[in-house]
Design a protein that fits this description.
Blueprint (H helix, E strand, L loop, with lengths): L6 H120 L2 H19 L2 H6 L3
């Protein structure tokens, strides 16, 4: 194909087309760069928010852990206090029982001593009469064997 007679006009159009294409291309490059910078900024903001959320989550989690630990410590303290109170009550009951048992044992010792004293007094009073009573008992049984009313006769009530 041969060039047309008006080649200058077509060159101007071609240059104008290439200028508009290059301007459009430059605009697209600028828009793409702006989009990349917006995307980068959005990613940075997202990362900052994620870090802030992670930090807040860790803080709340540590707060929850500390409250749970405090609650467990309070429960253990309360349980220990209740156990100590029960042990003190049992110790008091055992001490009271021991005091009562000591009082009873002291009374028994006193009564045994009193009975021993009474026994020795009775033995002193009736020691020589014991043989006489044994002899009277033998005589009474011999008399009872014969008549059946030996006790009344021995008493003198015939």
């Amino acid at each position: 194909m041969a060039p047309t007679a008006n080649t200058g006009k077509s060159r101007k159009l071609a240059l104008a087309d290439s200028d508009s294409e290059s301007e459009a291309y430059q605009k697209k490059l600028e828009e793409a760069g702006a989009a990349r910078s917006r995307l980068r900024k959005a990613q940075e903001d997202r990362d900052k928010r994620r870090e802030a959320l992670a930090l807040a989550y860790q803080r709340s989690l540590s707060g929850i852990y500390s409250r749970v630990e405090k609650s467990i410590a309070k429960y253990r303290d309360l349980h220990s206090a209740m156990h100590i109170r029960r042990l003190k009550r049992l110790k008091k009951a055992v001490d009271t029982r021991d005091q009562k048992l000591e009082a009873i044992s002291e009374k028994l010792v006193d009564l045994q001593q009193l009975m021993t004293n009474h026994g020795s007094h009775l033995h002193a009073l009736y020691g020589d009469r014991c043989a006489k009573i044994a002899k009277l008992a033998e005589d009474g049984s011999k008399e009872r064997g014969g008549g059946g009313g030996g006790t009344e006769q021995a008493a003198g009530v015939v």
